[in-house]
């Protein structure tokens, strides 16, 4: 009897891999992707745009969401509420690099976009939401509304 766990070797299939799956590392053991495309999508000045890190915290008065958006300014990020309860964060960055030296002309352009949507809790006051951005960290504060607590009605067991 062996106590060593055997791992199935990775075999690449374009039908098993979703480049834009935000949970890819979670489902595949974390620590980076072993796909041949991982190095392509994790290099360059816009690599952080492919998957933004989000943090959320709940206090008795409000919900606080933070998104790490290094290198982006507040003019490159947009926060919207769709349908009254879906928070949508979008961003776009375009980088242009131009070099002229010794008779050579080199111009490089790259860019990236991201969209992150998630539902707000039922007791969130989306119309009173406040946002701020400092040092590449977007902070969204959503106050809570008072929820009426209904008395529980006892149901007899027969």
From TrEMBL:
Keywords: Stress response
SUPFAM superfamilies membership: HSP20-like chaperones
Secretion signal, residue range per the UniProt entry: none
Domain of life: Eukaryota
Residue ranges annotated for the SHSP domain, each copy included: 45-158
Pfam name, any one: HSP20
InterPro entries, per database record: A-crystallin/Hsp20_dom, HSP20-like_chaperone, Small_HSP
Hydrolase among keywords: no
Cited PANTHER family: HEAT-SHOCK PROTEIN 20 FAMILY MEMBER
Family: Belongs to the small heat shock protein (HSP20) family.
Name this protein carries in UniProt: SHSP domain-containing protein
Organism, scientific name: Turnera subulata
